[in-house]
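Q: Can I see a sequence and its folded structure?
A: Here is a first one.
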Amino acid sequence: MNKIALVTGASAGIGEATARKLAAAGYDIILAARRLNRLQQLAETLSVESHLIQLDVRDREAVKRAIAGLPERWQAIELLINNAGLSRHLEKLHEGHAEAWDEMIDTNVKGLLYVSRAVIPGMVARGKGHVINVGSIAGHEVYPSGNVYCASKFAVDAITRGMLMDLVDTPVRVSTVDPGMVETEFSKVRFYGDDERAKKVYQGLKPLTGDDIADTIVWIASRPEHVNIAQVVVMPKAQASAMVLHRQQ
């Protein structure tokens, strides 16, 4: 039987790419996301077994039910990819929207906590597991008008460090992958479907792809069990920091 991985936010972008790469590496995959139709389409392309969960990680009780209700065959999760996350707006704090703040904090921070709380006890009990959180360069430096999104990713960094300490006396490994600019649905979601504005984010340079981050995740997960890659920051060559970019004219 293959190892089992759970990927949140698996319906697109980094999550979808990670599911594909993990399947190629021989994992059976639990695919979790809000858009069930996307998960179904993805599952049809995978060469391994998959189990689909339509899940909004912001819903604490739904997360608890989903993990507690897994069929026995899917309960021994060895790899958790906490990928579900998003950004909304790019505005000064005093001009921001409280509902957007709630959506980012509830998804990026609380959702990660809910899923981790539901999954990690099983890993500890079985004496085997690995949690890989998908953070961001925004968790290392604040950029203009990024205020709450950056705060949410700083929180992911702090939570990951806390997990590492809390699990140091167990066999469970904890890692974070912190990408720079990746061309996915991220900017389209941030700007509420404004394709033109989203495309401008990536103009004049070659950003990372979801596959680039998925490759990194699979590499981290494939290290020997005594090796823990605590943190990896991945940026495109044209990016030196969150706001230092080289764009070709």
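Q: Show me another, different protein.
A: A second, unrelated one:
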Amino acid sequence: MQRTLQTLFALTLFVTTSLQAQLSFNPLNWFGGSEEDIVAMNVASPAEQAEAASRLEEGKTRLEAGKTGSANRIFKKIIKRYPNATATAEARFLRGQILMTRGRWTKAFDVYQELIATHPDYENFDRVVGAQFECATALMEGARGRIFWIIPGFRQYSKAITQFEQIVGNAPYSDYAPLALMNIALIAEQEGQSEEAIDALDRLINFYPQSMLAPDAYYNMAKTYADLVKGAEYDQGSTRQAISYYEDFLILFPESNYLGEVEANLGSMENLLAQSRLNLGDFYYLYRANNTAALIFYNETITIAPQSESAEAARRRIADIEAGVRPTTGAKLLRKLLLAD
């Protein structure tokens, strides 16, 4: 027992000593410097600032003279040698511009992203986000990369979605954010990715309700759900969602040019939902002899689309039930025909 206690004491002492050693382990103390000294190492010295600024002017001069290759090499050297200099932000931006003129959209986007990461206080931040949006739009419109700078590569729609998502993250309060979300939805819908399209439109509607794209977002959301509907015989969850967004559209945007089209689409969805309710009512009335359940679905049919053919059929069924008419199922109808012969 005493030996066990001694062993536990020794282990406790070892663990405590190890923890103290780990807590005191700080790479910032390796060379006897303070944290302020280490932070200062990430800031370019005055000499480096001056050198970077001088090289930047040289690069700009060559760029203005049409010597893009030479200018690009200078900008790359500035980025490599003086990553933290103020002038390096402009060097990154101008290098991105050169890459865009060469159709290297993905590389240009990445250069701009590095600029945002390393110089978040860059004075032309809006221009950077705008350039990124242009890069993503080029990919959205089918721009291809080059394999070995010669062979056209594949279209990069998924890459465009990734870039638009990055733009939303970079500038969530800018005018580019709702535009980026709309483009994500358009690409996803084009590629048959309905869930991704719905997610993007949902974010646009909820986070940017005052955007000029809000009406289009509601309309596209309703249409996306409508396109998921397979027919009256299937689950009507998507139909209900489409109806909900079409109704919201009519309430929120009564002056829209889409009004007539939206009303027609809403009517189509309501007729489809009414047909599905009628089918359920028929199931209970014709095949289960459950008039109570049948009446519930027939009344739903009339409520959903009172002027539809399904509603007229539902009214006739209700009249038969109230008159005590027993339905003629397929088997009974066949027996009647055979007896008639």
